[in-house]
Amino acid sequence: MAVTDTLRYQRVTTVGDFFALLKPRVMSLVVFTGLAGIVVAPGHVHPLTAFTALLCIALAAGASGALNMAYDADIDGVMARTATRPIPMGHIRREDAMAFGWAIAAFAVATMWLFVNELAAGLLAFTVFFYVVVYTLGLKRRTPQNIVIGGLAGALPPAIGWASVTGSLGLAPIVLVAVIFMWTPPHFWALSLWRCEDYARAGVPMLPVVKGKRATRIQIFVYSLLLAPLGAVPAFIGLGGMLYMVLSATMGFWMLLEAFACLREKDEVREPAAKRLFGVSLLYIFVPFAALIVERLLHLPPLWT
Amino acid sequence: MDEDDRNNRAERERRKRNIALALALGGLVILFYLMSIVQWHENTGH
């Protein structure tokens, strides 16, 4: 029986329901990494153009979230973590969420095309397509590698931000994308370790469900091991300065320590190490990207030119 | 909660939705207007 069967009650759809569909917390992270891409990109762009680019990234991220909730409403209803979302609660119709999501996605891409540039619009459209069609409709219910491949969608915002300013791509935005891409598996697998039963009940083949918790812990550690040096690369390609280097190295080491603690975890019920790793991984994305932004705004020199 | 309360609440929520939609659309109209000016300036080299 779906968790929501006991919670569900009928009421009119509110503004808050539509706002919740946009997954504001995920959106804020996407906007932040997109902003980093805009700020660190070489060249000048009118502030209003930068704002429009950021707004389009935010809207497309929100639309992707709404479409994900619409297509995954059956899964959300049986998972405790997602059971109180507007669709499983019966606060908003699935069809309305789909119309809302596709309309906003189309609007965001068209606006990006009209007022920013074609490359940024193309990347934005690709991101929505990849998240909704490839990840949500394709990979999520089929393979334990779902979040590894699907992570590309969440990793692209810095490249979209960069393309908004320069109209092109290069090594630097690809490295930023690679950092987020490599960060995604340990972040979501940490969550799936303590939500394992939830995913199993919903029939989502997350790694701990399919391969077991031990295999997941090893994979988390391996990805964290690869992430730590990769996170430092921006400092060696003329993107990050000393502040970035220090913070990135510190965060990479901290995340590795938590991944190691997770590897040695004995409490498979409460999974305290996985919960800590999840929290640290959130900081990992925020702190080094904030350092990149601060360095650029303060005109601090890159470590390596 | 009786029927009247439910209707009043639904009406209030509908009004809030309409206001939010109007504000969002109004904001976008202003943004499009300003962006058109920015693009015009950039294209004419001002």
Write structural notes for this entry:
- The complex is a heterodimer of chains A (305) and B (46).
- Chain A is an all-alpha fold and 305 residues long.
- Chain A is 73% helix and 0% strand.
- The radius of gyration of chain A is 20 Å and the shape is flat.
- Chain B has one domain.
- Helix content of chain B is 91%, strand content 0%.
- Chain B is built from one helix and no strands.
- Chain B is rod-shaped, with a radius of gyration of 20 Å.
- The mean pLDDT of chain B is 90.
- Chain A binds chain B through residues 11-15, 18, 46, 48-49, 52, 55, 114-115, and chain B through 9-10, 13-14, 16-17, 20, 31-32, 34-35, 38-39, 42.
Structural class of chain B: mainly alpha
Helix content of chain B: over 70%
- According to DSSP, the number of beta strands of chain B is 0
| Oligomeric description of these chains | heterodimer
Number of domains of chain A: 2
Q: Outline the low-pLDDT stretches of chain B.
A: none
Q: What is the CATH superfamily of the largest domain in chain A?
A: UbiA prenyltransferase
**Strand composition percent of chain B:** under 5%
- Distance N to C terminus of chain B: 62 Å
- Which residue ranges of chain A are poorly predicted, with pLDDT under 50 across at least 5 consecutive positions? none
Helical amount among residues of chain A, as a percent range? over 70%
Task: Please report the first level of CATH classification, the CATH class of the largest domain in chain A.
Answer: Mainly Alpha
For the largest interface, the chains and their residue counts are: A-B, 13 and 14 residues
Radius of gyration of chain A: 20 Å
Overall mean pLDDT score of chain B?
A: 90
What is the structural class of chain A? mainly alpha
Number of helices of chain A: 14
